[in-house]
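4.2 Preliminary Data

To establish feasibility before requesting continued support, the project team ran the inverse folding procedure on a target of 201 residues. The structure was first converted into the token representation described in Section 3, and no sequence information of any kind was made available to the design step. The complete token record follows.
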């Protein structure tokens, strides 16, 4: 009888031990880092420029991810907060709305948690007036605020190529006098700090 009691004691002790381990593991919370395979984001910096983007980030491996999305250009609805000078770009207020397409391959560094680099590419089309292609090298870091929320801050350095579709210079070199010259790609360097808010699915 005593042997049975001792045996039951050891079985119960082992069960309790495993139960405690599982309980501890269930309460360990890494704020979504290991489960952040899919995040829906929007770019606050783009919204301030009258572009409302919806971006989906999918992490394929621990280090490789891709962001892709579409945006709604709302220049015909309200004036952007971040905008060119009215004196230098007098036709900018007449530019129409449209759409944008965005793709951004990313690499998350193994030894720097949530720090990433990549190359972003964005195409924008303002009706039949103008279009632009923007590409940049990016370096950023992502923070997980809660289980379902993330903040991504990124520094972009690149080039913007702008093209007039109707011969007018809405977002181009203000010194263009010949409309034929406005039909050429005009490039300018960009340095931008972007702020993205995300919801972890």
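Position-by-position output of the design step:
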């Amino acid at each position: 009888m005593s042997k049975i009691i001792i045996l039951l004691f050891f079985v119960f002790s082992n069960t309790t031990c495993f139960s405690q381990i599982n309980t501890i593991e269930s309460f360990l919370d890494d704020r979504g880092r290991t489960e952040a395979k899919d995040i829906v984001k929007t770019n606050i910096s783009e919204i301030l420029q009258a572009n409302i983007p919806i971006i989906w980030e999918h992490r394929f491996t621990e280090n490789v991810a891709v962001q892709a999305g579409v945006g709604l250009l709302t220049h015909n609805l309200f004036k952007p907060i971040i905008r060119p000078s009215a004196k230098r770009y007098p036709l900018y207020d007449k530019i129409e709305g449209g759409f944008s397409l965005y793709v951004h391959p990313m690499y998350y560094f193994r030894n720097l948690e949530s720090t990433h680099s990549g190359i972003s590419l964005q195409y924008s089309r303002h009706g039949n007036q103008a279009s632009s292609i923007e590409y940049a090298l990016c370096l950023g870091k992502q923070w997980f605020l809660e289980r379902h929320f993330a903040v991504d801050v990124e520094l972009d350095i690149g080039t913007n190529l702008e093209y007039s579709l109707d011969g007018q210079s809405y977002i181009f070199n203000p010194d263009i006098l010949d409309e034929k010259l406005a039909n050429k790609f005009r490039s300018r360097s960009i340095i931008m700090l972007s702020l993205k808010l995300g919801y972890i699915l």
